[in-house]
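Hi R.,

As promised on Friday, here is the backbone we talked about, encoded as structure tokens. Could you run it through your design pipeline when you get a chance and send me back a sequence?
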């Protein structure tokens, strides 16, 4: 199965990335602005990683044993419940399916624009015990899950669909608008905010690593949430820079953010 995933990844990289060039220009330009070494080659590797992830999701019931979940995160979830802020890194869907076998997991998800693909994708994840809710149902569903001391996973690496309830943060050489929802949900429930990011190892294993744990203070509000999500974004920035081919650069991540002023996040914007 590992060889099959790599083979499909290579085919997808050729068809989608090189022949059809789906968002290829956007991917290369974003990598260039982030000062990724050899953007063309890294972009091709990203398309291979995406293809592999699709096959890995299909074989999730058999590949889940190759996923290493961070025991620190599991301990927090089982003891108190937690909001997991995560991103499209590594084989993110496979890791989510594996996590749902270990702890009750609710995932706030967006719908794909192509209906048949969306129904197939959502139904397959649901069969792996992942509880899926749409963004419009997120607050109520999260409140119920966290009251039961479960985990709620929320993606924070896409451009929010609104400007309200967001904060600007430097990310991969540009200014990004970041959704405050993961931190606000954690604050209102009085549970930790865990930043957990996936990566694929050269040996074909998958690691879900707890890179940041943030405890909301009593009466935490927007100021704490903004600081927490800026910290989460900085942690994701560092993670992506270590393995840029494993993040989904195809998203129009910076589509609604203003240009960065000269002094904004200079420490991150100058990272190489």
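Update: got your reply. Pasting your designed sequence below so it's all in one thread:
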């Amino acid at each position: 199965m590992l060889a099959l995933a790599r083979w499909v990844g290579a085919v997808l990289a050729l068809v989608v990335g090189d022949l059809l060039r789906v968002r290829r220009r956007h991917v290369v330009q974003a990598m260039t602005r982030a000062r990724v070494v050899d953007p063309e080659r890294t972009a091709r590797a990203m398309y291979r990683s995406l293809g592999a992830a699709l096959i890995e999701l299909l074989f999730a019931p058999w590949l889940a044993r190759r996923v290493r979940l961070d025991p620190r995160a599991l301990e927090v979830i089982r003891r108190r419940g937690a909001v997991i802020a995560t991103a499209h890194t590594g084989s993110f869907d496979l890791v989510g399916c594996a996590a749902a076998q270990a702890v009750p997991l609710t995932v706030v998800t967006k719908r794909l624009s192509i209906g048949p693909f969306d129904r197939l994708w959502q139904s397959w994840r649901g069969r792996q015990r992942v509880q899926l809710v749409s963004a419009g149902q997120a607050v109520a569903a999260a409140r119920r899950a966290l009251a039961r001391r479960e985990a709620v996973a929320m993606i924070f690496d896409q451009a929010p669909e609104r400007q309200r309830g967001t904060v600007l943060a430097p990310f991969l050489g540009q200014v990004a608008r970041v959704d405050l929802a993961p931190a606000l949900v954690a604050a209102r429930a009085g549970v930790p905010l865990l930043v957990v990011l996936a990566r694929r190892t050269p040996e074909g294993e998958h690691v879900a690593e707890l890179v940041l744990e943030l405890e909301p203070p009593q009466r935490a509000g927007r100021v704490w949430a903004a600081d927490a999500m800026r910290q989460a974004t900085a942690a994701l920035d560092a993670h992506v820079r270590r393995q840029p081919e494993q993040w989904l650069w195809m998203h129009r991540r910076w589509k609604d953010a203003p240009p960065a002023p000269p002094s904004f996040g200079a420490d991150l914007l100058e990272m190489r």
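One thing I noticed while checking it: The first helix runs from residue 2 to 19.

Thanks again,
M.
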